[in-house]
Amino acid sequence: MDHTVLQPVGAEVNGVSLEDIDAATVTDLTALLAEHGVLILPGQNIGDATFVSFLERFGELTFTVGETPVPEFDDLNVISNVGRTTPPKSTFHTDTSYVARPPAFTALRAVTIPLQGGATQFTNQYRAFDTLPADVRADLEGRTIRHVVTGLDLGDDAETEAEHPVFRRHPVSGRTTLYLSTPARCVSISGMSDAASQEMVRYLFEHSTREDNVLRHAWSPGDVVIWDNACVLHRADHDGVVGDRVMHRGMVAGPATVAA
């Protein structure tokens, strides 16, 4: 197995087959995820059974209530533009941050690639923290963000909100990451007024998603991409997509967040 580091986030990994993966390789991939945030695994012409088996090597799988499951694979959900008259909407976010233990990893398997467009974009949240002005860091030290669910019908018993540290300690690397999601889900910052919270969340989001902090991955047939939700944001770019875009998504459960 070898890898090529991408900028400003991510790595492309070659020389590994997801159909026959051992414990040592999983350990290596986990370390690469903690360091680089996103791993692109090209040429993996696998089905959903192999995809699920691969993800289960990283831990217990989890599913976002309200998403559409893949037939016969209840741990996976479908992401698709098929049959839509308007493009889906996607803003940068981290997955399911409105629960106390957000997913550690998310992965996508390319099922159908459009003729044009449909890239997935990722940010480097280590770098987002490292490049914050000193006065902003000082102001946010020890604060938390309240994350709430949007756009999903979860039912009466599901988790719908959670508090997470603004500055999160990565559970593997120990490095500090700026942990937030799309502004609509980040409704308040502890110790700040509503107006100040909204202004700061907008600032942090814009800072995180600057063009020089974004990796754009153009999909190829056979691609599998896995990322670490503790240190990246992601979004699908639906602008100018021509043709069907179908992905199957799986997520690995994660630990409770810990302040840096």
Automatic annotation (TrEMBL):
Does the record bear Lipid metabolism in its keywords?
Answer: no
Question: Which segments constitute the TauD/TfdA-like domain?
Answer: 6-250
Task: Establish whether keyword Iron is in the entry.
Answer: yes
MF annotations from Gene Ontology: metal ion binding; taurine dioxygenase activity
Q: Which residues cross the membrane?
A: none
Entry's Gene Ontology BP terms: sulfur compound metabolic process
GO CC terms in record: cytoplasm
This protein's source sits in the domain of life called Bacteria
Keyword terms, alphabetized = Dioxygenase, Iron, Metal-binding, Oxidoreductase
Record family assignment = Belongs to the TfdA dioxygenase family.
Q: What is the name listed in the Swiss-Prot or TrEMBL entry for this protein? A: Taurine dioxygenase
Q: Which organism is it from?
A: Pseudonocardia sediminis
